[in-house]
């Protein structure tokens, strides 16, 4: 009991620290840009005490971007932790399983058909539908208790298929300007986003995140094995379906306004796991906060790195995430080698 209490208190401390970091980064995000604002000026702009220009910069230009960075980073981190809990595999994440790539294909199809403006909610609905199909297909192909290699191969196949389908849509597009817009959008960015984008994505992200958080107790039981979880009253098939729906809603909603932002869902749970432990129930909220902090930090970085235009945030997260993923694979191989030896 003392160990459980200690871990709970430690998780609470880590969660509080992450909340503070996210708050600081959110204020920093509102202050960084061509017009730099101090934290005090940011707060004045938020509460309407600053000048008109200051309020426009903070409330209408930078606040939607900060809200999207926070929400999208949180749902990616939460989705990664949920998939790792469901599959009991530390390398599980939405990006490795083709969910963002498939969601991007759905959104690209709507953009190429010219429906994105006249049917605003067609974009997230198409993205969510394709994300659902990709995760469902992965679990159907890989099956229960799939090995790490099988999961990665199935995810690679789905990602490749989604990428090829996206390229085909771009090639068949009759409007060259639409193809160029799609190409830049696929790189992943939060630049020039407005409250229209927030209202487009946030409902799906919130519902998807809530679905995943309601399964915390089931994830804890599942960590003991499927048979044990079922003996404790967990409907594993229902849990799997809820996770698929939650990830599809969250990732699809995020991709529909930001494009593809990879590796946040993989990195975030690994950053907090050494601090909290391997209990998947305690890992969900800290992983969401870590994901929010990572994306906020990345979005700040792309604005302060010297360049003629803003670097796409999806490019930066991939540059950081790919070496981290390779490190995790090497570590996993060594642990398997040690176990076999």
TrEMBL record:
Pfam families: FecCD
Residue ranges of the TM segments: 12-32, 66-83, 95-115, 121-141, 148-169, 198-219, 239-272, 284-305, 311-330
Gene3D superfamilies named among the record's database cross-references: ABC transporter involved in vitamin B12 uptake, BtuC (1.10.3470.10)
Chief subcellular location: membrane
Topological category with respect to the lipid bilayer: Multi-pass membrane protein
Subcellular location: Cell membrane
InterPro entries reported in the protein's UniProt record: ABC_BtuC-like (IPR037294), ABC_transptr_permease_BtuC (IPR000522)
Keywords, comma-separated and alphabetical: Cell membrane, Membrane, Transmembrane, Transmembrane helix, Transport
Family, per entry: Belongs to the binding-protein-dependent transport system permease family. FecCD subfamily.
Name this protein carries in UniProt: FecCD family ABC transporter permease
Biological source species: Rhodopseudomonas telluris
